[in-house]
Specification:
Layout (H helix, E strand, L loop, with lengths): L2 H13 L3 E3 L20 E3 L20 E3 L20 E3 L20 E3 L20 E3 L20 E3 L20 E3 L20 E3 L20 E3 L20 E3 L20 E3 L20 E3 L20 E3 L20 E3 L19 E3 L7
Parallel strand pairs: 1-2, 2-3, 3-4, 4-5, 5-6, 6-7, 7-8, 8-9, 9-10, 10-11, 11-12, 12-13, 13-14, 14-15, 15-16
């Protein structure tokens, strides 16, 4: 037993402290004296070597915050459900095999962290935690989510990246207060139509999944500012994507896109657009409407020509065109006074437009020099 731990517990008892930090002390078990701290509201036990938790932990009924991340805990005591005042519980990076049903008793819990625990399933009682605003389940081995997830209507942020999810429950659309949803690096093959009900969503990360199509309802997410769909299997995009007029960042790299909808030109607040590593052969003239665009990634496609309307992108600073099949560039690129970097390497260019020579702040990567 750590002498430091015993000393800190004794000090907390005598001083009446409401906080106790026993983190990073190499603890393999908790001293019985900890059970005497019935007034403690914040207990830090993270980054020790605990493999089990004593039942008396459930006697600390005034606990509001409990940090248990980075231990070796394989199961949680049923008594954990007695901590009815617990508002924040962090269990990240423990080899948990299951979550007890008693967890559903924590009805004031607002923040729950269970990332990197190796969980393969979640109990339906998760839906009883209706006060949750932040839920982190990233880095587990979940293949499905309980329908009861839809009961968590107070959720603001939901982290599910790095799992094995194939589909999502329709009840996902009931999370009306959600502003952040991270589903990056799963195995999703489709999205439920109900995703369009998440009208307060600002951030949606769906990169590195197996999505081959998107529901038209995605266009209902009018508050969305950042949408990442990179690394999927998308061959086309719904026209409703053009309704997302508050988007500032859109990532579509690493898909199978051959054409772009004209509706993409409606996204006039975009500052970053990533279309690299697709199968694009042509671009819609509507891209020229994106007057606020600062970065445009089109590298590793099959482009043979560019529309003159790209010369309308007056805010553009970075333009990546390397790895295409371009033989010429439009003269209108000389209008891009803000352009700082143009990468045209690995194309079939024999000359660059003379108009580029007037852009004194421009660095050209690859390709021949501008025509004299």
């Amino acid at each position: 037993m750590s002498t430091t731990a015993e000393q800190r517990i004794e000090t907390a008892i005598t001083s009446g402290s409401s906080q106790l930090d026993l983190s990073r002390l190499g603890l393999r078990e908790l001293p019985d004296s900890l059970g005497n701290l019935t007034d403690v509201t914040k207990l830090q036990l993270q980054d020790n070597e605990l493999s089990a938790l004593p039942d008396f932990l459930g006697d600390l009924t005034n606990l509001g915050q409990l940090f248990l991340g980075g231990n070796r805990i394989t199961e949680l005591p049923h008594s954990l459900g007695n901590l009815r005042n617990l508002a924040a519980l962090y269990l990240d990076r423990n080899p948990l095999t299951a979550v007890p049903d008693s967890l559903g008793n924590l009805t004031v819990l607002a923040q729950l962290g269970m990332s990197g625990c190796g969980l393969t399933e979640l109990p339906a009682v998760l839906g009883d935690l209706t006060a949750l605003t932040h839920l982190d389940l990233s880095g587990n081995q979940l293949t499905a989510l309980p329908e009861s997830l839809g009961h968590l209507t107070a959720l603001i942020r939901l982290e599910l990246h790095g799992n094995r999810l194939i589909r999502l429950p329709d009840t996902l659309g009931d999370l009306a207060n959600l502003t952040w949803l991270n589903l990056h690096d799963n195995q999703l093959v489709e999205l439920p139509y109900s995703v369009g009900e998440l009208r307060n969503l600002h951030e949606l990360r769906l990169g590195d999944n197996r999505l081959a199509a998107l529901p038209e309802s995605l266009g209902n997410l009018a508050a969305l500012k950042n949408l990442n769909l990179g690394g999927n299997e998308l061959a086309d995009l719904p026209g409703s994507l053009g309704n997302l007029t508050n988007l500032t960042r859109l990532s579509l790299g690493g898909n199978r896109l051959k054409v772009l909808p004209d509706a993409l030109g409606n996204l006039t607040n975009l500052t970053e657009l990533d279309l690299d590593r697709n199968e694009l052969e042509t671009l819609t003239d509507a891209l020229g409407n994106l007057a606020n665009l600062e970065e445009l990634g089109l590298h590793r496609n099959r482009l043979t020509a560019l529309p003159e309307t790209l010369g309308n992108l007056s805010s553009l600073t970075l333009l990546y065109l390397h790895g295409n099949r371009l033989t010429t560039l439009p003269e209108s690129l000389g209008n891009l006074a803000a352009l700082e970097e143009l990468n045209v390497a690995d194309n079939h260019l024999t000359a660059l437009p003379e108009t580029l020579g007037s852009l004194t702040n421009l660095t050209i990567v690859g390709g021949p020099p501008p025509t004299e």
